[in-house]
Structure prediction request, 313 residues.
Amino acid sequence: MSNDLSNEFAMQHPSQGNNVMMNTAASREMEEVKGQIFMAKQFPRNPFDAEKRIIDSCKRKSLATTAMYSYPRGKTNVQGPSIRLAEVLAQNWGNISFGVKELEQRQGESVAMAYAWDVETNTRQEKIFTVPHLRYTKYGTTKLEDPRDIYEMVANNGSRRLRACILGVIPGDIVELAIEECNKTLAGGNTSPLKDRLSRAFTSFKENFDVTQEMIEDYFGYQSHEFSEKNFSDLIGIFNSLKDGQVKVSEYFEKPTKEKKSKTTIENEFSNQKKDELEEKTTKSDKVEKSKGSTSVKSKADDNDGPQQEELL
Prediction:
């Protein structure tokens, strides 16, 4: 009887431990989801900025060359956006959680899930699939034993499902716009991204005229990441005018002096807070001194002692 009870307790104890681990993992995942939803509500997507970032990324030739896949199937040729382009779309569209998870590893196969979740609009795509631990070649089938080979096999099979999930979440017109921009880049009709051109322009201004990026931003009135193509054209016009000697640097840009150093927002707030505290202390001390002075004058005026009155006068 005692042996039966001990065996039953031994069988229940591991299951209780597994339940605790599962509950802990579930609660942790729930908190992560809540955090993602909170951040998405705090920083909502700006569709116009997101579209601009996507177009800017598609102007890179390294992305444009890997943006499409193509393979023959029968007598037709299948084409579509690659996983690389899908990842860039998800990253720049913003507030999208995506990836591949291995849910379970059985004997000879793995169960995995690819997902893409737009946290802001609560639109989700997921695909659960099974990956046999086998590599198929024209010479036959090879069983995979190395954990690294198994991981790479799951990741390779998951990337195709992940691409389908991402493309199912992002609007179709954005995907078509990105493909069109990549084709334009491959045809040689696109320049480099605006961010790269601005970086080269800032370097040229610094090397040729000792004009810093901060001075240029002060001239335009906002940060460089807010520059448009029009601002870049104006900047090139200024550079050409300076290069030809038509104008001087001082006519456009004001060099910072030691007395006029740029401060961060935190420094300004700190200095303003200190200034307010100092003014408050000065006001209080003035009030105390005035009250003391009036009291002493009144007491000495009421006193009939001659030397003390002469000292006061």
